[in-house]
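Internal ticket #5521
Category: modeling
Description: The requester needs a full-assembly model to guide mutagenesis choices. All entity lines are attached below as received. Residue total reported by intake: 1347.
Assigned to: D.W.
Attached entities:
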Amino acid sequence: MHTPASKVSGYVVLMIVQIVFLVLFWLFVRYDKSALPARLDNEDAGSADEHVSKYPQFQDIQVMIFVGFGFLMTFLRKYGYSATGYTLFMAALVVQWSVLMKGFLHMEGGKISLSLESIIDADIAAAVPLISMGALLGRTTPIQLLCMSIVEVALFAANEYLALNILSICDCGGSITVHAFGAYFGLAVAMMLRPSSDQNEAGKHEGANYTSDIFAMIGTTFLWVYWPSFNSVLAAGTGGERAILNTFLSLAAATVTSFVVSALVSHENKLDMVHVQNSTLAGGVAVGTVCNLLLGAHGAVLIGIIAGTISVLGYRYLTPCLTNNLRLHDTCGVHNLHGMPALISAIASAIYASLVTVDSYQSELQDIFPAMVGNNGTTTKIMGGLGRNASSQAGYQLFGIALTLIIAIGGGILTGAALKYASFRNLQKDEQHQDEQYWEVPALESKEE
Amino acid sequence: MHTPASKVSGYVVLMIVQIVFLVLFWLFVRYDKSALPARLDNEDAGSADEHVSKYPQFQDIQVMIFVGFGFLMTFLRKYGYSATGYTLFMAALVVQWSVLMKGFLHMEGGKISLSLESIIDADIAAAVPLISMGALLGRTTPIQLLCMSIVEVALFAANEYLALNILSICDCGGSITVHAFGAYFGLAVAMMLRPSSDQNEAGKHEGANYTSDIFAMIGTTFLWVYWPSFNSVLAAGTGGERAILNTFLSLAAATVTSFVVSALVSHENKLDMVHVQNSTLAGGVAVGTVCNLLLGAHGAVLIGIIAGTISVLGYRYLTPCLTNNLRLHDTCGVHNLHGMPALISAIASAIYASLVTVDSYQSELQDIFPAMVGNNGTTTKIMGGLGRNASSQAGYQLFGIALTLIIAIGGGILTGAALKYASFRNLQKDEQHQDEQYWEVPALESKEE
Amino acid sequence: MHTPASKVSGYVVLMIVQIVFLVLFWLFVRYDKSALPARLDNEDAGSADEHVSKYPQFQDIQVMIFVGFGFLMTFLRKYGYSATGYTLFMAALVVQWSVLMKGFLHMEGGKISLSLESIIDADIAAAVPLISMGALLGRTTPIQLLCMSIVEVALFAANEYLALNILSICDCGGSITVHAFGAYFGLAVAMMLRPSSDQNEAGKHEGANYTSDIFAMIGTTFLWVYWPSFNSVLAAGTGGERAILNTFLSLAAATVTSFVVSALVSHENKLDMVHVQNSTLAGGVAVGTVCNLLLGAHGAVLIGIIAGTISVLGYRYLTPCLTNNLRLHDTCGVHNLHGMPALISAIASAIYASLVTVDSYQSELQDIFPAMVGNNGTTTKIMGGLGRNASSQAGYQLFGIALTLIIAIGGGILTGAALKYASFRNLQKDEQHQDEQYWEVPALESKEE
């Protein structure tokens, strides 16, 4: 059944990809001048310190990507090596690819400039295929996952460029460009890889055990505590502090709400670890796009309450429905954690954009909604309001999420088709949700312990 | 026996609390001006950066609260969902409540100002009921815990206001206002909820297993490494660096001492995980109140040695005695980790306060012991020493801890009585220390694995 | 067989060591002036802020030492208490010892100056015996480990002083002075403690189980994400940003390579958790010595690819060979994670040093290669190049690693001999790789769960 030859060729392709990266780094990438020694004849150095002031936030995001996502997906009882291992593998591949891809979109003089910002962007990009991986968890080979991530990150970079640089939408915490994109791309791939109708029941290993559920809480708690860093890292000016405050409050409100709604809708009113592990985080996604806006504490809390509620209801009612009717198996429920909350965030961004005034945002309008300021961006122009008006910006926000959905779903369908019909090996039913097919797993130890 | 109706009404009450919070945020809370865009006609912004310079320390404290406390309490073998889950639930509720409560005590113009400082204070406040939860672990319903935390945080805010603003005691790392308060409040509640004398033996699930003990070490190690951030976050001037150094050294000395004393007093001289998980941290508590003072490295190390010794001896001899004689079940031994070390810290603060001279603290006397400086606080006044003298400040330190104990124990007794006799459901003996009553728990998987 | 008396005397010795530390702190250690209040008559304080700007990186390194190393070593299925516990014990002892030892080498006026830098250095020093502990894991008593760490850290401090201050080699991330030293010292001790030839088969507890392997991934992922902090914390100027970027890229490339090579060389092309847990980190070690140099992105990626490859091949082929032929049991494979990658780093440093020009490093030459600048270090001298030339610096780099190997291996042999033949108790074959000998372990719980 299982042919090592297919594995070997897959891994060899990935090695070739790594070597191609090496060559591209050599040809195109140079240190940014912030990372180069100041010239002796020009002693005004010291800008380096300023440049790395976002380093602590970068490190927080590192933990979210490598520890947070990895452990969040360890909840399956026989898939912990894969959850933590493929996260590491995929993120390590994607961060390099992102430096190159995003670099190609912003080249200067034919060279890509490498700085702390490049690797912050790279970590954010790594979140995208990791979200998609959640929709597919246990149903693909590692080769499929890795190949998917390469295609997906290229499309993500293109869509992000369109949304932020061409459409000029606001998306400070990336709920549109990162969470919605990753979730719907992954769901589209999952749709293409869905089982035949006689194979639609849950796999025998598709469940948690007591220990694996607690491992998953490592992921949940680290994602929770560091989410304000994810949302605020790209914010400018005082928007950074607002992003921290709004994200914190939205997460707190979503958490309380998730617990309550989980208990109210569950069997015998017992709390469900799936909701606790995931829906508590929905507040971070739902506030993402608008986190640097003037929401007020109540705005952030309200968004959190809505997100927590919808996320738990999604897990409880929508996911089983999608599985049974569409054979869409969303293993981690990314639709409930990333998909729907991101849609909420996009809608919220249209509402708040429609309320923007120069008077409220003052000097920061230019940073947050650059298209609302005249082309040359002077103070006079801001006061004069020669740019896009508020309701027009609201329309662009909705256009941005629509475009993202189209590219994500379209790209996901094509990628899924390629993964299914190209020469990739597909997992059989009984090979799913367990590590043994691709990992050396210790023999059962129950006898001796 | 078990009536879902009681659960439903409890959770509904918590939802109402969340909605009341929403309304209060809407009515009273506004962004601090550090989080508001600078006016266009006043371009001297940039103060934002300075304002968020404590952000990395805030994030460290976030990890302590959500990961540290949560995992430290996973040591019970069948209570891991509750330990990590209720920590998340309680902290998410309390942080919102703290922003409001502490805000009401410092309103300006009828509004509460929201800034990074608010949420740093909120995370610190969340530690208080989490400490109390340790004394009660496994013996209450989640509804009881959450209701307790609301009352407790209100009392904590009042006591802290009295101690710091009225009595002007020093308590940089919060050992008096946070640790002593949380521990003795929790112990008083536990006293009220103590079992009848024929039910006093240990519950059948009240113990660790090999895996749960290692999960608990996640909590221990993160609390250990980030404790210097907890103690130093509110320190001003060079006191911040002293707080870091003193906390680090005290923790290190307490750790070495805990291991040695654990081995010396244990059965067959074997190390005991309870001591390793908890007493190693006692150095952080015991140095808390005095961490920004001029202890010298030897002072910090000496405090650590004393704390480690007393904490291990407390676990080994005092806790069993309290359980057997008073039926006081302190599940996590918070008396040994937080209670007694906090008393040591309070006594140390009286000793060090009695030695304070203007010559030693110079310009920082005002920050650390404001009452020792004349009312207008000018340099001349400091030199002249018109304020409280050193032995008087020492007396106030002791008065501060005494007041804290009275409020904590009194409040705890009343709260415990309410939890016992009001319409709350109480856990029966065989429902304790296990998740199953309030959580969906996977069926035994031993057959298939 | 087992005499508690030997344990008691060992622990008593450690307590005496702690008390000696207390006395030495009292006699010799004083706060650095950055941690002392500014004098009232000299109001130019505020330098404190600058002084603690490395605090976030310090905290990252704290996590690496206490969480990263501790959990990385939990992979043995019955040795998790020891892995996390002894890491905490050893690190707590060593950080104090390091403040003293490194302080004695840099005293001013007979006093040791205590500042944030002291404890950054202390955490780095703690890595050294923790690396050695990896080579010995499960084969020593805690008393042996702790005594070893005291000797080792003294030798480490001496060797580091020779290498950095006398030979003036560059070693920004410590691959020569920390990783090579720790690995080869540990291997030399392991060689001295090797079993007799009739006892050479693997111990019955020397293996992972499913849960312990996932615990180990906590260590791996935290070491991975914070490694850029370890490598960059001592870098000056723009070298800090380069150290971050180079370490990040090298780790990413090593990770992708480790996965691919692991699959290609393993049985049935399955991934091996040993490689995933360890070899993915080899990129951080291999780039360490040169991380602040002008490697370019391609240089960092190339070093990562080489390190990942060699590390996996080492685990697959070299380690079994050493075990079978030399009876050298390197439990964690520190030779593959720290030893060989550190040698790669040393060789790379010689190559890059030989290419250094004043034109490329400009004003930073003095920080990075001080010996290449004339004695008085003026700009004129740099331009004139009156110091050591590039190929001479390359030679010193090689001399530095050679000296380090000699001191590490020589010191390890002597220390190992002392541990074996002095009055220390040695573990018997069946006492190895399990906690029970030195820890209270819960009784088997399989019956009731």
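Resolution: model delivered.
Comment from assignee: Residues 390-421 of chain B form the longest helix (32 residues).
Ticket closed.
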